[in-house]
Amino acid sequence: MAAADGEGPLRSASAQRSPLLKDGRSGIIDNAVAPGLVDTPWFDGVDGADAAKAHVAGVVPLRRVGRAEDIAGAVHDLAHSSYITGEVLLVDGGGHLLG
């Protein structure tokens, strides 16, 4: 989940603003995807993974943990847009809305 207090992906995006202005004039598109918890094989056998997934699924507005397809869809959409740049797309089931 992103924080608006200078931490996380929002801080990273604002720190990149000046280079993005220059890159944009050169036709370079620069975006990022900031995923929430995504259920992947990486979690297999990790202590507490099931509890973490259950917690996230219980609190985020979309009431589930992300899937790899969710992130891939966001990356695909950003990659196929020629008029979006300098954005951090939060793909976290609405978790960033929780504050």
Mean pLDDT: 85
Helix content: 40-55%
Mind telling me the C-alpha Rg? 15 Å
Give the percentage of residues in beta strands.
Answer: 5-15%
Largest β-sheet summary: 2 strands, parallel
Q: Structural class of the helices, strands and pairings?
A: alpha/beta
Poorly predicted runs are 1-6
- Please give the count of helices: 4
Number of strands: 4
Trace the largest sheet across and list its strands: 1-4
Order of helices and strands: HHEEHEHE
How far is it from the N-terminal to the C-terminal residue, by CA?
8 Å
Which term fits the overall shape? elongated
Report what the structure shows.
The chain has 99 residues and is an alpha/beta fold. The protein is 40% helix and 12% strand. The strands form 2 sheets. It has a two-stranded parallel sheet with strand order 1-4. A two-stranded parallel ribbon has the order 2-3. α3 links the parallel β2 (38-39) and β3. The longest helix is centred in the C-terminal third of the chain and has 12 residues, at 68-79.
Brief rundown of the structure:
The protein has 99 residues and is an alpha/beta fold.
List the helices and strands and how they pair.
Blueprint: H1 8-15, H2 17-25, E1 32-35, E2 38-39, H3 49-59, E3 66-67, H4 68-79, E4 88-91
Parallel strand pairs: 1-4, 2-3
